[in-house]
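Data card: per-record layout.
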Amino acid sequence: MNNTKTLSYIIRKSPLIRTLLWGLIILILVIISLIFNIKTKKNPVINQITPPVGAPGDLITITGKDFGNIRDTSFVEFGGSKLTSSSYVSWSDTEIRVVLPANIKDGLVTVSSKNVRSKPAFFANTTAAPVAVTQSIQSTMPLITSISPEKITPGALITIHGFNFGNSRDRSKVYFSIDRETKKDDSFSPSENFSLIEASDDTFDYVSWSDNEISLYVPDGATSGSIFVETAKGMSSQRKFIMDNKSGKKSFIAPKNYIVQSEVDIDDTNGDKDSSIILRCPRPVTTAFQPSVKMTECAPEPIISDFQHTLIHQTSGAKNSSGKRHFKQNFAITVYETRTEITAARLESTDKINKNILFSYTKADNCVPSDDAAVISLAREIVKSEHNSYNIAALIYNYMLSNFTLQQNIEKSNRSVLELIKTKKGDAYDFAIIYTALLRACGIPAIPDSGVLVSTDLRTTNHWWCEFYAAGFGWIPVDPALGAGLNFQAWQKDINTSQYYFGNLDSQHILFSRGWNEIKPSVPTNKTVRINKSYALQSIWEEVSGKTIKYSSYWSAPIVIGVY
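The structure for this 564-residue chain is written out next.
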């Protein structure tokens, strides 16, 4: 009893002994807790690795149990190398999916979760395996692992993450869903499927491209649906995305398929044997509303079938005993009617527009005199204090229809389009170019379009219209001449033309050039010929090399030889 009292007295009187005693108690509790955790903690278990043999870039699936519902600090090791976070595709308690990175070799695979590790399973890398194996098709196929952001607006900059895209784009492509009326027999071949749209160099969609990351702007017309990458090795699986169409909707309906023939004749040539004549024949361009252009016939065979949106013929400038030389090309073209529904108040500000579009399509060029003082002054007079791009475009459109008189026939003289502002009279070409110039003078990206207009009797006439860009929506078509009452036999009846042709476009417009096509001569000293107010907006139609040559040429307007 005295010993007990003595011990109790020592504990009460000695702080050091009390501290040591409490520390011993805490240590015992920690040891008991660790023993309990070790007894109760479940080790992850790997049941299967699929495929057991693979290569960098393959999608590997590890099935088992007790992996944990989220990855958090858990990880997978291949051959002693811990996978980085970018390798993980998904993680659940019973399944882990990873993309094998390039630095992984053969070896044991383990899953570590909550500081406990599974028993190892074996994986073999085809690049180091000692026996011959069949390479997985997936090893070189492109794979999309994520898109950021996943909810996007039209024309937004997005990044596609994944593997096997290739270190440079070359001929690889990215496709998006688009709202076009399609046939039941449409295939999934990207070039044939009209429910898809390809990102384009023409509108500066691509920004950067590497083997595991693609940065690009969403192409005009894309809608909620799928996105996939196509390389020389094949197509990736489709990845879903959501388009935020808060500013409105664009749709493509009632397609028409045309067979269009364009021709040019060269006659009365008289020149030196070393001289030559080069013809730059316009090719119809592909866009969201004109998704398919195929050359079905070309006689004679061109020396280049597609260069700067032209096909190139070359013929001798020497006198030709056989007389006239005839050049003909036929195209099968699919054209959709474009319909837009826009909420102007929900459009984004111009600083959200692709900088290349903003720079290229707001400045003056050899076709659009948007820097002329008369254009700038008139634009200010019309727009006043309005800042919304859609409202500005509507103000300019309505002003032109109310204050300018449209001449039904195309003016043959080479007078400047600026005469429209002075005289208040002009043809369809003047209306389209001045409308484009006024928009550009207001800082709104705009493109003059050129091609042919097809009437119900299939007759064609050279024609011009316009597109302007609204941030958060995309390109919007406008045809000032048709809106102003140009005589035209349309398939659609009982429409208000002035309202319809602001924001909509029928499928009777066949597009040959989108914007001014500045072509450089093949040799700086060559003589060149430009044709004004024709069905394409390009700087060179004919190019002559060698000594003085005399010849005559005749370019006929493209004709429709079939429609279905």
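Known properties of this structure: The two ends are 114 Å apart (CA to CA). The longest strand covers residues 248-270.

See the next section for split statistics.
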